[in-house]
Amino acid sequence: MVIICSMIVALLALWWILANRTAKTRYQKLNQVEMTGLRFRKLHAPFIGLIERIDFVRKFPMFVYRVQHSIQRAYGPKYGHEKMMLYLAEMFVYSWLALMGGAVMTLWLHGLMGIAIGCMLAIIIPFAQLKDLHEKVKLREQDILMELPEFLNKVVLLVGAGETVQKAIIHCTERKQSSDHPLYIELRQMIAEWNSGFSFQQAFEQFSKRCGVQEVSIFTTTVLLNFRRGGNDFVLSLRELSRVLWEKRKSLSRTKGEQASSKLVFPMVVIFLVIVIMVGAPSFMTMNL
Q1: Each residue's pLDDT tens digit, 258-284
Q2: N or C end of the chain: smaller count of CB under 10 Å?
Q3: What is the pTM of this model?
């Protein structure tokens, strides 16, 4: 078993070294795509080549679709395929490291437990990463939905005071210049697109696609349909939309509160059992005596 595990470690390491020689230059541009949350980018190149060689995308279309859909909702549609390939490579890296770690653990423990744990982690970790990605997307959408009514309320006040929609959006965004909130990150990018020559409609549509939230799409459609007319009709439509979004924000806040209270049930039960044991143990001990 020691010899087999030593061979596994050596083969995995040797494969990466040999594959990295040819893949490093081939996928250099792909590794230059900006994407946060990747910890092992320097190890990606051989695994990107492996993904293409085994035709992973075609063989597992549903899994790849879920990954790409979540990637586009979390990071935007730009370079969606490239970011999906980087995320898949990150999954493969974690599985490879789990197998290496399991083989090394077996050498140390002199038993099958290490390699068994390594194989199990190599299967579980990719699905755990995918679940974590879905949770991040969900939290991002909730953050946008929670902030959008407040942003829209400010825009309504400024437009009602005589500002144009563009100036109102720029003014509200500049006041949150240092914020890393996902809504204001996308708004700053939209303003940058205006300054670089994009039309108001194009920039607004791209903003809606990047956010990937239904309420933002409704906001975008309302603005694009009414901003040319201006006047009281435009302000009234924005106020009505603001009222609807505030109701959705209240509903989301109630849901979050219910989820938080349900998460506290298990710790409270544990604390209750500990207290019962602490209070009841001396009584039982006295009865036995």
Answers
A1: 666 666 666 777 776 777 677 766 666
A2: C
A3: 0.72
